[in-house]
Amino acid sequence: MGNAFVVSLAFADLLVVCYPYPLVLHAMLHAGWLPDEMECKVSGFLMGASVIGSIFNITAIAINRYCFICQANTYEKIYGRVGTLTLLTLVWVLTALAILPNLSLGSLTYDPRVYSCTFSQTASAGYTIAVVTVHFLLPIGVVTFCYLRIWVLVLRVRRRVSTDVRPRLRPSELRHFLTMFVVFVLFAVCWAPLNLIGLAVAVDPPRIAPLVPDWLFVVSYFMAYFNSCLNAVVYGLLNQNFRREYRRILLSLCKPHLFLQETSKGGTERSNKQSPGNNNDDDQPKANTI
Length: 290
Fold this sequence. Notes:
This is G-protein coupled receptors family 1 profile domain-containing protein. It is a multi-pass membrane protein. The chain is mainly alpha-helical. It has 2 domains: about 5-240, Rhodopsin 7-helix transmembrane proteins (Rhopdopsin 7-helix transmembrane proteins); about 240-270, no CATH class. About 80% of the residues lie in helices and about 5% in strands. The chain has helices at about 5-20, 20-30, 35-70, 70-80, 80-100, 100-105, 125-160, 170-205, 205-210, 215-240, 240-255, 255-275, 285-290; strands at about 110, 115-120. The chain has a two-stranded antiparallel sheet. α8 (about 170-205) packs antiparallel against α10 (about 215-240), α10 (about 215-240) packs across α11 (about 240-255) and α11 packs across α12.
């Protein structure tokens, strides 16, 4: 059930693709274009939901991995079907609660520097500090704690310091942990500059905001939102299953006839394996003991 949070993270990344990014591209290609108020609010809201949903899902994944590896008994109690769905719902409820104040504060405005409707760091100093704390500092602290505990346990097991600790450290689970750890590190690196600028501006918006160079804000902004594109790359580089599916997708796009032949062959092989004639009494006990 832990993969449900990965799917939720992918959904959060895709939110910006369905509406905000096409508007940004349109604005870049048509200089001087301005969205109407409704377009601006919808675009800014979806972009904010994607960002906050991403970090909340990354936090949920870190807690899930921590419980799975370090607290096996707790994991069994919490992460059943009902528990996982409840936690997923909580992630998105918290995301909505974090983004909704933007609508009443009017902090979602069009910024010509980045060709998009986004959160204005000067709209409310208090809300800016709250956003940086809830969206960045607090989740980063929780995720860092979880991954540090996992790393400590992994090193202890590798060095055989403790024989009474028997965490679930199958190679597949360790690779999954490393993948999500890289996702977390990239998120922290990509989002740190923009959040640090937000904290600095929140101290005294009228005085500090004009001191922030436009180029620095633009670079930090696009660096932050480019993070959503990196997750798919990380999955492809570090996960064999994703690499295999990526190859299948590329094959289906470039050479559809070969893809259809491979799919047909795979279906035939599965049918042969599942046919009653291929299962004998000698094979069945072996399958049960693996």
